[in-house]
Amino acid sequence: MIAQVTGLKAGKFHHYINNAHIYENHFDGLRTQLTREVYLPQAFWINPKITNFHDFTPNDVKLIDYKHHPKIEWK
Questions:
Q1: Distance of CA 33 to CAs 21, 22, 24, 60, Å?
Q2: Which residues of 26-46 are buried (b: 16+ CB within 10 A; e: fewer)?
Q3: Is 7's pLDDT higher than 90?
Q4: Dihedral angle over CA of 3, 51, 57, 10, nearest 10
Q5: DSSP-assigned letter for residue 23
Q6: What's this model's pTM, rounded to 2 decimal places?
């Protein structure tokens, strides 16, 4: 969104997790998560008509063809 309104090209987003941990009650759900098929990334659409960052609304961004697995019930 920032790249669009400033006329720059969007780059890559990197996120690093520090001190990640897993609780005992998460083990079963994480085992389920690890067996699931990985889906291809979805397309992210941003309304190309917006030229001012403060004009964006929730309707100006969309995930196209979003595919997900059923919810994992955590204990």
A1: 16, 13, 15, 31
A2: eeeeeeeeeeeeeeeeeeeee
A3: yes
A4: -10
A5: -
A6: 0.62
Query: Largest Cα–Cα distance in the chain?
Result: 48
Instruction: Read off the tokens for 26.
Output: 């998460």
In this predicted model, what pLDDT tens digit does every residue of 24-68 receive, in sequence order? 989 999 999 999 999 998 999 999 999 999 999 999 999 999 999
**What pLDDT is stored for residue 75 in this prediction?**
65
Q: How is residue 33 written in tokens? A: 């998560």
Strand partners, 43: 64
Residue the block writes with tokens 């990640």: 20
**Token pair listed for 67:** 């595919």
Residue among 20, 16, 7, 21 nearest 52 (CA): 7
